[in-house]
Amino acid sequence: MWIIKISTNAIPKQEMYNFELNETPKSMRKTVIIIISALFIAASTKAQRIELTGFSGYMLSGSVKTYTGKANINDNVNFGGAFAYEIQNGILVELMYLRKDTKLNLYDVFDWQSGWEEYDMSVEYYHLGGQKEFSDGRVRPYASFSLGLTRFHIKDSKSDDEYRFSIAPGIGAKAYITDKIGIRLQARLLMPLEISGFGLFYSTSGGGGSSATFNIPVLEGDFTGGIFISL
User: Which ranges constitute the DSSP H helices of the chain?
Assistant: First the structure.
């Protein structure tokens, strides 16, 4: 469960915020990191081809209704890189990093005077996965699947980062410009798992208060393009 508590105490011309996220068990993070590292190292020993890719694109996140209003994670530009090994003809194992810097917007119908509350947020994906190419020509359509950790970070706060296991199926195509350099286009569905709660808590200087707790089904669409180098 991903729970963020936001406390606001109003004072003249200044607001103070306190962010708290429940901590994901560290053992789960360590286990996933060890598994990803071991699988990637094992695959690299059988490499027939190496690909280095840098990419950028756009990530769609959308909005959801809450019990007392609405929450919106803004769409925004994303960027990242990938390091892949070919272990059999047309089959690659890939280590991938992806990041999006965005805004988290919250609206509470019981606090209509405040309007939308906005918070800076970043989302990062650390994934290990595979590709299956369907051609060995200059244009190579492929399907992909990866899994790993997703990191949620509320900027300018003292809260702990939240990590979640995630998966990402995708499709794409590579087009060789030369024998070693090409263009890669890709579309993916990014799915952090077990995100079940999100809470907003606040109080005013007059003593009034309210709270809202709601579920956020985090489901993001990722469309990227980049340049790859084949070694």
Answer: 26-44
Query: Do 59 and 76 form a contact (C-beta atoms < 8 A)?
Result: yes
**57 touches 197 (CB < 8 A):** no
What pLDDT is stored for residue 5 in this prediction? 43
Q: Say what the pTM is.
A: 0.73
Q: Which two tokens stand for residue 63?
A: 């909005």
Q: pLDDT tens across 45-99, in order?
A: 666 889 999 999 999 987 767 677 777 889 999 999 999 989 889 999 999 999 9
85: which DSSP letter?
Answer: E
Nearest to 147 by CA among 184, 183, 201, 93: 93
Q: CA nearest 197: which of 14, 20, 13?
A: 20
- Closest by CA to 125, choosing from 153, 158, 159, is 153
